[in-house]
Design goal:
Helix content: 25-40%
Largest sheet: 6 strands, mixed
CATH architecture: 3-Layer(aba) Sandwich
CATH superfamily: Zn-dependent exopeptidases
CATH class: Alpha Beta
Structural class: alpha/beta
Bound molecules: zinc ion
Shape: globular
Distance between the termini: 5 Å
Length: about 250
């Protein structure tokens, strides 16, 4: 891949897709002071992008960079078009009780993943021929399915490692809503070959946390914390442990 000036040439450039949750006609949750989740997520996502781009071997790309709506499937499809190596979706949580507070990080559950393989294998329109090194045009559909499952299982394991790393860092900034990574079937996490996490930064429905979420200085600290978690994950990840997408252009 082409490197940016200043990038150290012996390390691969990694692309981090940052997804600001909601947008446009979907405002997401809102706080009692009127703060909208879609605005907080975009502000934090932009700061995460800038922090990522300050790293020599990382490239940050935004899935949305303005106030418009992108369907969930379109978000993962865009991450794949951008050849993202990691996908981080930014949200703010809400609950009926104003007391609920703290940060959470989610990864895709195995159960949430089971329906995905069939859909990706059946739907040719938004997929390349190869996903996670698996040739989906293989003559043996059972082999393709098995290889696909292996790729997705590896992706979930990577997602969990990334999620734990980001959660650990967030715990130094904000109380954690739960002490461990949670798993759910979020559609936006279903890219079968890109480790993906969803960060619930804090509760916008909690007046104290709403105030912090709207504060640019706190947004900056949140971005810093998330990027530290990403970097720790990348540093602890065994090099070339997973096959690269084979349709990627690796030539300089
Ligand atoms: Zn949300």
């Amino acid at each position: 891949m082409p490197g940016r000036p200043g990038a150290s040439s012996n390390l691969p450039m990694l692309t981090i897709a940052i997804d600001a949750g909601h947008g446009g006609e979907d405002p997401g949750a809102h706080g009692e002071a009127g703060t909208l989740e879609k605005e907080v997520t975009l502000a934090v996502a932009q700061r995460v992008r800038d922090r990522v781009n300050a790293e020599p071997n990382l490239r940050g790309v935004l899935i949305r960079d303005g106030d418009y709506f992108i369907p969930l499937g379109g978000r993962t499809a865009k991450a794949r078009q951008l050849h993202a190596d990691l996908f981080v979706s930014i949200h703010a949580d809400a609950f009926i009780s104003k007391d609920a507070r703290g940060s959470s990080v989610f990864a895709l559950s195995e159960r949430g993943a089971t329906s995905v393989a069939a859909r990706w294998l059946a739907n040719r329109e938004n997929q390349a021929d190869q996903i996670g090194g698996v040739n989906l045009n293989a003559r043996d559909p059972y082999l393709a399915q098995t290889l696909f499952d292996l790729s997705q299982t590896a992706t979930i394991a990577d997602s969990l490692r990334l999620a734990r790393s980001v959660l650990r860092e967030l715990g130094g900034l904000n109380p954690l809503h739960r002490g461990e990574v949670e798993q759910a079937g979020f559609a936006v996490l279903k890219a079968p070959d890109i480790p993906s996490i969803l960060v619930e930064t804090a509760f916008i429905s909690n007046p104290y946390e709403e105030k912090r979420l709207a504060d640019p200085a706190y947004q900056e600290r949140l971005a810093d914390t998330i990027v530290r978690g990403i970097k720790h994950y990348l540093q602890s990840r065994p090099a070339q442990a997973r096959p690269k997408l084979s349709q990627r252009d690796e030539t300089p």
